[in-house]
Amino acid sequence: MRNGDNMNNKGFMMAEVIVVSAIILVFLTGLYLSYNKLFSIYSTRINYYDSTTLYNLAYYRDMLIKNDKMNNTLNNAKGGVVNIFDNGRNSITKLSDNDNVFIIYNQKKAVDKNNFDNLNMTFLDYIDYLSTAIQYKTNYIMLMERCIDVDDCKYAYLEVYDGYET
Question: Which residues, in sequence order, are bridge partners of residue 141?
Fold first, then answer.
């Protein structure tokens, strides 16, 4: 074996290692970017499609109907937004102090965030999400925010039919 052949093989192996490393790096980068996007979508879905929050919201809707307060609440919502817990004689009892529930008269348009006072930014982000992700079939929607702590809030919405939808 000649001395020059041995050196050429070493150089060739080094080139192979660099090429294979570059291919693996490109593959892992693509995998990371895909996973990161998937994780972001999953995180949004966990917060925006929480089943417990949806069941609580359905309970509040059912309580408004059962106590014959829904029609009056919907009429009050024609001004824009009604907090069902702060609606005078129409208010109902909260399941938790961390619940916020609003009925919004939207006329099948995007919700105006200026109608809300003193809400956290994540709830306003949820309203933005709904305006781009949902096409409303009704004139009214109910939105609920249920915060476990300051940084962990869950959201749900229901469309409310008043009998005048087209």
Answer: 104, 159
Cβ count near 81 (within 10 Å) = 19
Distance of CA 1 to the CA centre of its chain: 69
Give the count of beta carbons closer than 10 Å to the beta carbon of residue 102: 24
* Residues 55, 156, 46: CA angle, nearest 5 degrees: 100
CA angle, 155 then 157 then 159, to 5°: 180
Burial 103-120 (b: 16+ CB within 10 A, else e): bbbbeeeebeeeebeeee
Is the pTM higher than 0.70? The answer reads no
Helix or strand (DSSP H, E) at 143: strand 140-149
DSSP 8-state symbol, 70: H
Average pLDDT, 10 consecutive residues per value, the chain (166 residues):
55 84 94 83 73 88 86 80 68 76 70 65 78 79 83 84 70
User: What is the helix (H) or strand (E) element at residue 57, kind and residue range?
Assistant: helix 51-66
End-to-end CA distance of the chain: 89
Kindly state the tokens that stand for 140.
Answer: 């009214």
